[in-house]
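Quarterly update, task 2.4: AR6-bound model.
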Amino acid sequence: MSETTERSINESVVRLLQGDISTQDTDAVVNAANPDLAPGGGVAGAIHRAGGPELTEACARIRRERGPLPTGKAVITPGGALSALWVIHTVGPVWYGGTGGEPELLACSYRACLAIVREQGLRTVAFPSLSTGAYGYPLEEAASVALATVVADLREHKDTPVEVRFVLFSARDLAAYAAALEAFADG
Ligand code: AR6
């Protein structure tokens, strides 16, 4: 069992752990999706494998009806066979060196997911480290954006507390997110 780090933000809590996003028992898990909402590799592959055909078909239907999901936006589907009831799919930015608005787009993805969590009245959500795999966003920078955005959002919406879990795949990812949580949850 790996160590868990957590901090309270008013009535909300941010919890960091090392693990697999596709096995989380939160109300929703966030998928690091591609604009076509297709299975793909990494997080998306794991979530689609665990969610099964019901999840993949729900994604295909949204893709057909609404076209590709733009970077920084999010949509929700049922979780199919996952422990989580819902999947919130968001497309993080591809890293092009940092001058293409990547930090703001990454922040948009986190905020769009939390907006859906609140609209749907969900209480717990698990995020992976968006954009830091196939999309190439540098880990430490992405961790700073993720924690700064989530902590600010939880402070802003103190009337609708949620548990936000970051599920990090490696010890190195967990350490980077723990350092960012220290930096942004203080004060
Ligand atoms: N649980 C938690 N974290 C994971 C898991 C898992 N099961 N698998 C990988 N990670 P990525 P992106 C970590 O590539 O960069 C897909 O093909 C991984 O080590 O999943 O946003 C989609 O279809 C990394 O730290 O997401 C898109 O085309 C982090 O999760 C594209 O990749 C994100 O890695 C999205 O790329």
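Highlight for this quarter: The chain has a mean pLDDT of 96.
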